[in-house]
Amino acid sequence: MEKDIQIRELYRNTDAYADKEVLIRGWVRTNRSSNKFGFIELNDGSFFKSVQIVYEQDGIENFDKIAKAPIAAALMVRGTLVRTPEAKQPFEIKAKEVVIEAGADADYPLQKKRHSLEFLREIAHLRPRSNTFSAVFRVRSLVAYAIHQFFQEQNFVYVHTPIVTGSDCEGAGEMFRITTLDMENPPRTEDGKIDYSQDFFGKETSLTVSGQLEAETFALAFRNVYTFGPTFRAENSNTARHASEFWMIEPEVAFADLTDNMDLAEAMIKYIIHYVLENAPEEMEFFNSFVDKGLIDRLTNIISNDFARISYTEAVDLLLQSGKEFQYPVEWGIDLQTEHERYITEEIFKKPVFVTDYPKEIKAFYMRLNDDNKTVAACDLLVPGVGEIIGGSQREERYDVLVARMKELGLKEEDYWWYMDLRKYGGVKHAGYGLGFERIIMYVTGMGNIRDVLPFPRTPKTAEF
Amino acid sequence: MEKDIQIRELYRNTDAYADKEVLIRGWVRTNRSSNKFGFIELNDGSFFKSVQIVYEQDGIENFDKIAKAPIAAALMVRGTLVRTPEAKQPFEIKAKEVVIEAGADADYPLQKKRHSLEFLREIAHLRPRSNTFSAVFRVRSLVAYAIHQFFQEQNFVYVHTPIVTGSDCEGAGEMFRITTLDMENPPRTEDGKIDYSQDFFGKETSLTVSGQLEAETFALAFRNVYTFGPTFRAENSNTARHASEFWMIEPEVAFADLTDNMDLAEAMIKYIIHYVLENAPEEMEFFNSFVDKGLIDRLTNIISNDFARISYTEAVDLLLQSGKEFQYPVEWGIDLQTEHERYITEEIFKKPVFVTDYPKEIKAFYMRLNDDNKTVAACDLLVPGVGEIIGGSQREERYDVLVARMKELGLKEEDYWWYMDLRKYGGVKHAGYGLGFERIIMYVTGMGNIRDVLPFPRTPKTAEF
Question: Domain Aminoacyl-transfer RNA synthetases class-II family profile, which positions (chains A, B) (predicted)?
Fold first, then answer.
């Protein structure tokens, strides 16, 4: 096909194209005309903003046809780029030739008007063409890349931990079963139970809830590693913050303690924010104006200030002292609820807060026991508007302490033979955390529902597209 | 913890540390000593090579203890970096202080000797500590990053297409079912069938075999997009080239035809090769010496030459003319087998070859019908040593032609309502391809078995770790 120029390029290097002929392609966002001339907003997806095409009865031979070009039709436009210093947009294209490369039926659902986010979810295959979702999904892409860049620049090894897993290693909630057995009539053993030895993997398998344990094996070889992949929770919770399929980033670092862990997490969050402000200024301006007023100031503020760091015990004291009445009463030992987390980060500190050293009873078996024998070296990061965005810990590297803890919890050592091996052979101090990818997207865009930052969200009773 | 310097840094910027005191941490790879002095190869995972530590009876206070430090033990070493121009390694560390940070049991399975790849698969949690797998998994990480960089630098949007899917859209082979129903005693409808409306997603769901159809929805919004995620095939094939869980990259580009598609794929492969040669010279040297002699020459060659491009019809003619006897006889219309593909790329062209325009009968429904009505605008990339590494096509953007083709194949339009919508609303020419991530890793490392380029491979009857 004849080479065209992307609209992003015209915006970023306008000088190089001013008063020159350019060839562009894109889709009609709006089209209005009189009988003498018309204006088309053309968007090619390469850039948040559209380009204004001016076409005239005297300028193109198929004026009448173009004047009827519907929204969503695809055009090729050849014309001259002209600066428009007095207008809203910095330049426009005076068309010499306009060709319709693809039409659009009149029942196109994304006509020029405000649509509810709920309606747009039902047309998830078209919503990236709207301003809001064009911005959301470009930012999502940029944040993903920023994360890779952040870790790769520091020589971290990206590891693809498995999605199919043979055991509920983390014990982190309900899992989805994977099977190729005939559900109607599965093979059974002599005692009538389902014979999973005949299943595809020769045993019961599920979708992973976390790649952490496998990531630890790599951290104890490469020192600095991270995962970035999909994870799954079969929890029947229909909230604005939970999805059944979501992406997670799990860095794991050997020769590191809890402070190193928090330093890394804080640097990562700041890097991400800096990256999107730098690389998606138009999208961030849009969120700031139409989705979450004050967003850019808030994010800018975060880059230049230290995150707060308090212990769980201090957090409980602060909540008790606040005099605020919570739905779930506060006392030492409880798992902090969203209302508590948000109060800490939004009302008390008004910025991101690490809460550390939680009671061992409410945390996972692999977290390192503190010397008080009551708390573990965990660190959760709470941020305003979203709540918990990161959960992390120093891992229990002491074989005997880990075995004792597993016994307390009824976990069988043999199910974790390879995980225990890591404690036998050079099992140094190490730490890591999990970042919920959709949570950070919500945080940097101001979008309030996880369904609106996932391309095709999977939630209870929903797996469309 | 007291800050140390990574061994990579010592190798890359030796000048800055020569004759200075440094603090490093790492794991013992070898340790040999007399009663006066000893040598430890210390590796911290940050770099392919280890550092030689020299420790002396007179130099450190715990000489006897360190002399017994076993393989895999973790050490902290403080000492002076001394250049060693006559030795194999460019420098060594003269130890002043050595602390054992973690011991290692004597039954450590990775003792200093040659191990078979098969044995190492059984200890997949430890094999990244071996030279071979240290090299494989760092290269894997770098190739992943190179792919992101390649696309992001060209303004492609990274899209996470869903893993859980409600239908076998591509019809590309057997799929894994996902369920939360009680397998022993599933709910049934009145007529005795399993009641999937009570399953987690309210219907039958599976693990995705491809994100292409969803990626097309994004390409027709953002123009240039790519996926990079896990995909699954429940095929019971135990070969060196197939895994049940593998990663795939699927770029999709609007306003593009088959030639644009091949240009993009060729540029991507060259970019990847260039990136690993540049960023993993030690690892590539290792593969070249111990895994696949001539690898670096071959890869260097590929960067500087055009890929061949022939039609399927030409490929069949060449195979017939070759006089070679194949296990599967060649005639126009057959699906090319691995033996044919490898003959074309390894014997005839001795370089990567795109084969285009396959008979429609052996290709997927969404590929664009050529004017001959017999072939479709497909392009597969074959490479020496691996065979097919990329499968791509221009997509059928013409609504009526697509509907007719789906009817021929017995596909129901209503199952693809959203995919058909793309043809109704600005459905321009577009094209894309899928790159098997493990295949490219095998190609650039020379590793012969897909199980040895996946961190924790999943294959029939195998889902360990």
Answer: 137-455
**Mean per-residue pLDDT, B270-297:** 97
Considering only CB atoms, B102 lies closest to which of A134, A186, A427, namely: A427
Same domain, B287 and B334: yes
Q: In chain B, what residues touch A128 (CB-CB under 8 Å)?
A: 217-218, 221-222
A223, B44: Cβ pair inside 8 Å?
A: yes
Distance (Å) from the alpha carbon of B370 to chain A's nearest alpha carbon: 16
CA distance B323 to chain A (A): 38
Of A144, A230, A427, the CB nearest to B230: A230
For position B15, which CATH number holds?
2.40.50.140
Q: Which of B72, B134, B257 sits opposite A426 (nearest CB)?
A: B72
Q: Please state, in angstroms and rounded to a whole number, the distance separating the CA atoms of residues B208 and B232.
A: 6
Residue B364 lies in domain = 129-172+209-452
- Determine the Cα angle at A288 with ends A284 and A290, to 5°: 110
Instruction: Give domain status of residue B213, yes or no.
Output: yes
How far off is chain A from B70, nearest CA to CA, in Å? 9
Token pair for B39: 């040598």
Residues of B in contact with A416 (CB under 8 A): none
From B236, which residue of chain A is nearest by alpha-carbon distance?
A200
Q: Residue A263's domain is classified under what CATH number?
A: 3.30.930.10
Inter-chain touch A1–B256, beta carbons under 8 Å: yes
Same domain, A134 and A76: no
In a domain, A462, yes or no: no
- Statement to judge: residues B229 and B337 lie in one domain: yes
- Residues A84-125 pLDDT 10s: 999 999 999 999 999 999 999 999 999 877 899 999 999 999
**What's the number of domains chain B is made of?**
2
Query: Which chain B residues are within 8 Å of A256, Cβ to Cβ?
Result: 1
Q: Which of A13, A200, A212 to mutate to test the interface with B (most CBs of B within 10 A)?
A: A200
Residues 6+ apart with CB under 8 A from A195: A186, A187, A188, A189
Alpha-carbon distance of B357 to B378, in angstroms, equals 5
Task: Of B37, B33, B41, give the one whose Cα is nearest residue B71.
Answer: B41
* A394 and A261 housed in the same domain: yes
**Is residue A378, in this structure, part of any structural domain at all?**
yes
Distances (CA, A) of A249 to A213, A341, A391: 13, 21, 11
Nearest CA in chain A to B129: A221
Rounded Cα distance, B266 and A157, in Å: 26
CB contact under 8 A, B200 and A245: no
Question: Do A431 and A335 sit in the same domain of this protein?
Answer: yes
Residues 6+ apart with CB under 8 A from B460: A200, A201, B236, B237, B238, B244
Residue in A424, A409, A355 with CA at minimum distance from that of residue A168? A409
User: Given A102, A119, A150, which residue is the final one in a domain?
Assistant: A102
B422–A214 C-beta distance less than 8 A: no
- A43 domain-assigned: yes
Instruction: Please indicate, yes or no, whether the overall pTM of this predicted structure exceeds 0.90.
Output: yes
Rounded (5°) CA angle A130-A136-A137: 90
A248-296 pLDDT tens trace: 999 999 999 999 999 999 999 999 999 999 999 999 999 999 999 999 9
Residues B235 and B359 in one domain: yes
| B116 CB burial (10 A radius; 0-12, 13-18, 19+) | exposed
Q: What are the chain B neighbours of A132 within 8 Å (beta carbons)?
A: none
Residues B33 and B143 in one domain: no
Report whether A87 contacts A47 (CB < 8 A): no
Q: Which residue of A has its CA nearest to B49?
A: A222
Indicate whether B380 and B422 sit together in one domain: yes
Q: Which of B102, B121, B154 is the last residue of a domain?
A: B102
Assess: ipTM above 0.95.
yes
- Among the residues of B186-280, which ranges form H helices? 212-222, 258-279
